[in-house]
Amino acid sequence: xxxVLLIAVSMLWDTKRRxxxxxxxxxxSFLLGVSQLGLAVGWSxxxxxxxxxxxxxxxxxxQHTIAFDYGTTLPEQRLYQxxxxxxxxxxxxxxxxxxxxxxxxxxxxxxxxxxxxxRLAGAPWAMQEGQIDCLRRPNRVIVDDLFRDKLGITGVxxxxxxxxxxxxxxxxxxxxxxxxxxxxxxxxxxxxxxxDPRLRTDDITYVLVRCVSPLSIQTVKECITAEVPGVEVLxxxxxxxxTSRFWLLETGLGFTVALTAALGVLxxxxxxxxxxxxxxxxxxxxxxxxxAVGFTRASVLQIxxxxxxxxxxxxxxxxTILFWWAVKATASTPVPxxxxxxVYMSVTAACFGSAALAAWVSVRTIHRIxxxxxxx
Length: 376
Prior knowledge:
Blueprint (H helix, E strand, L loop, with lengths): L1 H13 L1 H38 L4 E5 L11 E2 L1 H7 L4 E15 L5 E9 L10 E4 L9 E5 L14 E4 L2 E9 L10 E5 H7 L7 E2 L1 E6 L5 H11 L3 E5 H14 L2 H31 L1 H9 L4 H33 L11 H27 L9
Helix pairs in contact: 1-9, 2-6, 2-7, 2-9, 2-10, 6-7, 7-10, 9-10
């Protein structure tokens, strides 16, 4: 095996320019595939971030709610009914409304107002400036630092106008992104009711439920479904999947991202296979020489496979470095490129699979090599 590895490395080194170009081609292909899937992951995490950071086991939502951003209203009575269900540790309200934010220059920006209860369930999970507790004060709001310029904000304590009501920026959050053109604006639930004349005094949109025990989530979900009328009851994971599916599959732009991600992986695999096959084809005379001096075809095939794996691994390493640069470069954008362990490993496996495919295609060529051809 040591001889096989040594010969494989030596052959690649003899054509180091072609080998480097091949590794770069594989790296770019890997970057294309993992970045496109990373964009889809970033979309999914962006649209479900509030759901997953709300520290709720169960979400009680209006019937036929297609995604988090499009919830209608429920009577506050539903909140009290949920609190009386056995196994419920706490139940907190959340209210969602759409409004216009008036900038200092007179322009208006559409925003999504999110009203949170006294315990601040569903409030921002990370702050850039200020404290989350500011939401307990009247007419205080928190907006994300990413949308500072879009909302005409210079910092904490700035005044703004929402629905002809004056509000004060009490803090700037971090990483609260949105797929809509409307930034999220957090405020106390009571302040939102007072600010928006379209809302009734008992309107809420969601009930965020924490269970006494993680083992009782399914039981509590079934009890709420049976005892509370006119609602849907979903776990946080189920609500996140529904929201993510809506944005990624039921909107034209999301479908485009998903399709591009799939094409990116496919193109990456094809390019990797073609690149590795070209490298193998360039060494056919070398393989004939090895057969002529006594190497078995099995040993030559091992050399081909080792070369493919070495080039694949090098390309993946370089592609990974480029990918993490892309992750950092997009970290402060509305939709960052992100990844998960399974996604990254899937693309890596696909890349190695394409390398194995190229090696297998090359094997068919090597089987037809005549060792005598090296002396011709």
